[in-house]
Amino acid sequence: MKKLNGIKSFSSLENKKLTDLSAIDGGRHIGASIVYSNFLNEEGRQDIDTYDQDGKFRGRIWDNISPGC
Q: What superkingdom does the record give (predicted)?
């Protein structure tokens, strides 16, 4: 079996402890969010799911843009 020397340096970077948690930014989301569906009703409008800042489902609305506008 081959010894993978290049992986060692990558692994040592992974093993370093992160002391400043403010450097992590990707997982934080403040405020409500919306998710557009790919479903269209008979009028050609999308449904939109709304979620609060904790990720809990709050409701479903339809877009207000009529097709062709």
A: Bacteria
pLDDT above 70: residue 63: yes
Backbone angles phi, psi at 43, to 5 degrees: -90, 0
CB burial of 46-69 (b: ≥16 within 10 Å; e: otherwise) equals: eeeeeeeeeeeeeeeeeeeeeeee
Q: Where are the domains of the chain?
A: 29-64
User: 22-26: long-range contacts at Cβ-Cβ below 8 A with a sequence spacing of 24 or more?
Assistant: none
In the chain, % helix, strand, coil (3-state, to 5) comes to 20, 30, 50
Please, what is the average pLDDT of the chain?
73
